[in-house]
């Protein structure tokens, strides 16, 4: 047990634990001999880290599925999601069964685990879940997040999404329809009602999202530019800036207002304004310093700070943001994961940050003031060393 405790600590705390640490987690979960909430949570979030054990996980899942009962639902979900996180289609039969038994998770963050799965294969099941959830007093935000991540591939689900415009989940439905795009053009009038406040359930956050979705499904930016531009001018800028950024040069009339907001006292507003200004004008010079200042190398994952967003935007700017490369490489080489997220989503959150850093550096390209990539080391605890450990070459 002491060896397993050391392995579990390593996979939660460190980005590059020795392979035996993940092997110990898989062994505990697949045999259920020493499994715990911590081993299960690590396995759920593991993704490609356990791809070398995919056949074993699939074998156990097949056995569990043949004897499926409500009491085994958790174990089936755990193994199915472990396979899905690495894009393994052997998870599909179990995911369909889990959905039929109302055993899909409700956490929004877990949708990213299923996002690599082929939408065409899983979407019929998700559409059934949407129809069933409509009759319930609650809906799964997990389902809406998954559809939004699939984007245009989720188009067949439009008929199931539209009824949610009449529920407390209207904001999620608006986001999904916007992500789907032109295939949801039949909803344009409904979206316009939300954008202008005519819809019965339109709240203060709906107009900007709805206006953006209207543009996405129709291709006509007029309504969205008016609604989102007015929001930025009125002071509710943080809710309008990301949408103006999407419009790019079409939002040129708002460029001066947006540039002024780059000096806002709010970090989120400054970052969103810098990104929007670059997208609107194509001029990275005033935007890069603002974004770079928001990238704190000591960031722990606190959701009230837009560090990951700033990194992403620097990557979008690309080569003109080359001065950010040394800082981003240093953060990427850090061995410890983000510490702020709780264990239930810590690995997912940190892996998302790692992807953002990696993609940003790839788009920025090699810089003249440092190597193209930082040296990476793997942390491995001694098998019975408790909380001790050493650094070892990966």
Topology, number of strands: 2
**Rg (CA only):** 23 Å
Largest sheet: 2 strands, antiparallel
How far apart the termini lie comes to 25 Å
Helical fraction equals: 55-70%
Strand portion? under 5%
- Give, in order, the helices and strands: HHHHHHHHHHHHHHHHHHHHHEE
Count of helical stretches: 21
Structural shape: flat
Uncertain runs are 371-394
Going by helix content, strand content and strand pairing, the class is mainly alpha
Strand order of the largest sheet: 1-2
Question: Would you tell me the overall average pLDDT?
Answer: 89
Describe the structure in your own words.
The longest helix has 22 residues. The protein is mainly alpha-helical. Helix 5 packs across helix 6 and helix 13 runs antiparallel to helix 14.
Itemize the secondary structure elements and their pairings.
Elements: H1 2-13, H2 19-31, H3 37-45, H4 54-66, H5 73-84, H6 92-100, H7 111-114, H8 119-134, H9 141-150, H10 158-161, H11 170-180, H12 188-195, H13 206-218, H14 222-234, H15 237-247, H16 255-260, H17 267-281, H18 287-293, H19 307-317, H20 325-332, H21 343-364, E1 377-380, E2 390-393
Antiparallel strand pairs: 1-2
Helix pairs in contact: 1-2, 2-3, 3-5, 3-21, 4-5, 5-6, 6-8, 9-11, 11-13, 12-13, 13-14, 14-15, 15-17, 17-18, 17-19, 19-21, 20-21
Keywords:
two-stranded antiparallel ribbon, single chain, about 0% strand, flat, about 400 residues, 21 helices, mainly alpha
